[in-house]
Amino acid sequence: MTTPTAPIPAISSIEAGLTLLASSLVLATRTDGTEYRMLREDCPMHDDLQNIIRDAHSDELPNDWRYGMVHTLAHALLEYSQPSPTPWTLEDFQDVVGEVAELHTDHAYSRALAWLAGDMNRCHFDDVETYASDCSGNDLGQLAIRRQLEEVTLMANAILQGLDALLPA
Fold first, then answer.
1. Which residue of 15, 96, 107, 156 has the fewest C-beta atoms within 10 A of its own C-beta?
2. Secondary structure (3-state) at 162
3. Mean pLDDT of all residues belonging to the chain
4. Is 38 helix (H, G, I), strand (E, B) or coil?
5. What mean pLDDT do residues 142-160 have?
6. Domain definitions of the chain by residue range
7. Are 66 and 60 in contact (CB under 8 A)?
8. CA–CA gap between residue 152 and residue 48 (Å, rounded)
9. H or E stretch including 139?
10. Closest alpha carbon to 98 in 19, 155, 165, 166
């Protein structure tokens, strides 16, 4: 006698994964009234989505900025891919990551500096040549903006690569 098993949930495309991710990050409210994004406990593929979100956190502990940015990036990447007669590939999405990251980076010095100060581990570039080589070393605000741009780009790529890895072979 065989025991029936539930089908293993899967996503059919990166767009389907982005849709699932975006809809699974819900707005919640703390007792002090502040709002934040959290991954629904009952969402399909919870553990897989949680791993993608953790990868997008890099080495930071879970924080509101990261969860909010994952939600924002999922929606923004979906907007770029639609409408399209065929599902976008990882390469298609990677072609627009830079533009999406640029659009969702804080360009106000005060917000970029506050973001940088929010976690001191954010104070280094992973790729100085790409993000800071043409930036004056005496413009801290511009350096903070460039650092956040790098981080948003890394997050978008982590999300896309994580979803791509969930696609059926």
1. 107
2. helix
3. 92
4. strand
5. 97
6. 14-164
7. yes
8. 21
9. none
10. 155
Distance CA 123, CA 138 (A): 15
- SS3 breakdown of the chain: % helix, strand, coil, rounded to 5? 55, 5, 35
Tell me if 112 sits within 8 A of 106, measured CB to CB. yes
Quote the tokens at residue 162: 């994580």
Other residues' Cβ atoms within 10 Å of the Cβ of residue 35? 10
pLDDT in tens, 100-121: 999 999 999 999 999 999 999 9
Count of C-beta atoms within a 10 Å radius of residue 155: 23
Q: Counting Cβ atoms within 10 Å, is residue 153 exposed (0-12), middle (13-18) or buried (19+)?
A: buried
CA distance 20 to 41: 13
Total residue length of the chain: 169
Q: Is the pTM of this model over 0.90?
A: yes
